[in-house]
Amino acid sequence: MTPIHHKLLKTAFAIGLCILALTQFASAQSRDGFSNLIDGHSLDGWNIIGNANWNIGKGMIEGKSTPNSAGFLVSQDSYKNFIIRAEFWSDEDANSGIFIRCQNRNKIGADSCYEVNIFDKRPDQSYATGAIVDVAKVNPAPKAAGRWNTYEIIANGGHFKIIFNGQVTVEDGQDNKFAEGPIALQSAGGIVRFRSLLIKKI
């Protein structure tokens, strides 16, 4: 075997190992009971509310908003008790969030949903990124802008836990107003991107 053939064989073997690892990872996700609500090339399973500019492609959903445009993607399915694992990117001006257990599909807000915030520049920092608006404060508020981040959201009855990039920002949120409802992704300022929204019912 020539040195070139040997190098090509090693490269092919390395690629094969990577593919195997990715396959095993996807299989593990399936075994763990999570399903991804974002397919990266369509808005299947979602309804558009408002006039934000939503773009789909490259394995993610991107929302762009201006002072005169804002809106939501609202899931067609409803969820009660669950774990969400999300990956998102936001710019410095992003006003976004993951709304859960929404009560009115056509009127999304913190008064009718639980809003897990993505809003670094929120004037009241106690309910900025990492908090559940009007339910559980964060101190200090972490910053999300300019990088990919992870959220883990656990909603079980009236108990809530939020983990941002591995850091617990809400340890034991308590509220019983809303028991079940759809999920909504917000675009109310700047740019936000979601490339994964895994959910498992509990």
Describe this structure in a few short sentences.
The chain is mostly beta strands and 202 residues long.
How much helicity do the residues have?
Answer: 10-25%
SSE succession: HEEEEEEEEEEEEE
In CATH terms, what is the architecture of the largest domain? Sandwich
Number of strands: 13
Q: Determine the N-to-C terminus distance.
A: 55 Å
Q: Look at the helices and sheets and give the structural class.
A: mainly beta
Total domain modules: 2
Here the CATH topology of the largest domain equals Jelly Rolls
Number of helices: 1
Q: What is the approximate shape?
A: globular
CATH class of the largest domain: Mainly Beta
Major sheet description: 8 strands, antiparallel
What fraction strand?
Answer: 35-45%
CATH homologous superfamily descriptor of the largest domain:
Exo-inulinase, domain 1
Rg on CA atoms, Å: 19 Å
Mean pLDDT: 89
Low-confidence stretches: 11-29
Index terms:
mainly beta; Jelly Rolls; 2 domains; eight-stranded antiparallel beta sheet; five-stranded antiparallel beta sheet; 13 strands
